[in-house]
Amino acid sequence: MKLSHLALATAFACGSLSSLGWAAKPTEPVSPIQPAKVTNPKLVELGKKLYFDPRLSKSGFISCNSCHNLSMGGTDNLKTSIGHNWQKGPINAPTVLNSSLALAQFWDGRAKDLKAQAGGPIANPGEMAFTHELAVDVLKSIPQYVTEFKTVFGSDEVSIGKVTDAIAAFEETLVTPNSRFDKWLKGDKKAITAREAAGYALFKNSGCVACHNGPAFGGTSFQKMGVVEAYKATSPAEGRSAVTGKDADRLNFKVPTLRNVELTYPYFHDGEAATLEQAVDTMGRLQLGKQFTADENASIVAFLKTLTGDQPAFKLPQLPPSSNTTPRPKPFE
User: Fold this and answer.
1) Rounded to whole angstroms, what are the CA distances from 87 to 91, 173, 300, 319?
2) What pTM does this model have?
3) Residue 67 assigned as binding residue
């Protein structure tokens, strides 16, 4: 039975496909985001301070939040991030929101988890441009931090392992539940419009869910950028091949989450898609071999905007003051 676009949209939004002769699927390929469960609030609070503290960088200017701004969807809305001494980054900064749900961290998956990822930018000469040893020295020179590390870990020893443990614990709380789409998944059929529901139906039926599935709508596999048609990237990033050394993995990247995607522009590893409309068009052609009509594109974009959930809301941390022995920043070296 062939249905009109409007009939399908209305039936899908109302949850009544069965009344039109369509069998309802018992499960969806996606699931709602669950709220974070904090088991160690003191560790999370320490991690929050470290996440916002620019003194972990050589310049004393760049923090984790610089590239993963929690007021901007957990990213910086730039094609590529700005590093130490205004260096241009080689790749688009992925959002930190819901990153705990990913199978690995970074576009190429070189970090197995958030703890492994947290130490990378600190010691990267193109990002925070410090060393782990110097970062630890800075923290050791700040009495309030030493006290807080002792409270959290039972010892006043400060190490990079403890630093990354704390940052990762904070980042694990950065999930975004209660999107309108999640409410729809839970049974509130009025949470999204007929147009948005039609966009989801098209998203599923076109094959987008083959890669964008699970609670994060992605992040659970590595896929080649440019399956049907080659992608001409403006970034030198090679993808998984830089990690595995296998040419077959070239331009294979971690599938990004689509949660909060209306906030995390520009899109793709090179940031070349400035808008959601452009991203949907490119993905349709390159990954699916499908040219979406303007109406279909608009429906999918409308659906994607229902994935914006509750953004992290907390009191900004008050960072402890440096002491007279704290190494001073060197922003212009």
Assistant:
1) 12, 30, 36, 27
2) 0.91
3) yes
